[in-house]
Design brief:
About 40% of the residues lie in helices and about 20% in strands. The protein is built from 10 helices and 8 strands. It has an 8-stranded parallel β-sheet with strand order 7-6-5-4-3-2-1-8. The structure holds pyridoxal-5'-phosphate (PLP).
């Protein structure tokens, strides 16, 4: 496997407004370093412990994206350095991110996770919850959190029409809020559809680094 070729292969197909997040969960720091050396700056991790273990061995310039389900009691561990938290799915979590960001004297960028009805995940806000959160004024009070967009996932299915329809729904919710322009959607198996439907950030793991071994 040639890592650089894998990156170039994907990047050559991407419109310039779409950012590639390299999902490095379960992968060793040596591989992340190799990807960084070939020019990749943005990496995504799912597990707080694993991310914190890796950070100290890798260049400070790396922009770390937290893409997993984040528990409130773990925010404090990533708050000093995280670049973007993708799956913010509760007001409780937003408040905790705000608190820990303030302690670290920084503003943390976040994406609100959208949950669409057909999707398998149980995490995220539905369309109406997003609407009431945004009109509630809570976001203005949380001065150390900056919402820059939304994140969503399509169901884990082979059905391309269903995946496309789910991405369309995500885009349709997101586009009601042009003040929050980023839309993180698309993984190894479905990123081409996601980009066609308006993604601005794709989260790619196995296509870059090979399949994961969870043993
Ligand atoms: C693991 C993961 C990815 C990357 O998945 P691949 O299929 O390996 O590209 C993307 N997004 C989230 C939320 C993930 O957990």
């Amino acid at each position: 496997m040639n890592l650089k070729d894998n990156f170039n292969q994907i990047k050559s197909q991407l419109p310039s407004h779409v950012k590639l997040i390299a999902v490095s969960k379960t992968k060793p720091v040596e591989l992340i370093q190799e990807a960084f050396d070939s020019g990749q700056m943005e990496f995504g991790e799912n597990y707080v412990q694993e991310l914190c273990d890796k950070v100290s061995f890798l260049p400070l310039e790396i922009r770390w994206h937290f893409i997993g389900h984040l528990q409130s009691n773990k925010v404090k561990y990533i708050a000093p350095f995280v670049s973007l938290i993708h799956g913010v799915d509760s007001i409780k979590l937003l408040k905790e991110i705000n608190k820990q960001a303030e302690k670290n004297n920084r503003i943390i960028d976040c994406l609100l996770q959208i949950h669409i009805a057909s999707e398998e995940t149980k995490f995220g806000f539905n369309k109406n919850e997003i609407s009431s959160l945004i009109s509630s004024g809570i976001l203005q009070e949380l001065k150390y959190v900056r919402i820059i967009g939304f994140m969503g996932m399509a169901s884990n299915t082979e059905n391309k029409d269903q995946i496309r329809s789910e991405f369309k729904q995500l885009k349709s919710v997101a586009s009601e809020y042009p003040q929050f322009p980023e839309l993180s959607m698309g993984m190894s198996s479905d990123y081409t559809l996601a980009v066609e439907e308006g993604s601005t950030m794709i989260r790619i793991g196995s296509l870059l680094f090979g399949s994961r071994n969870y043993s």
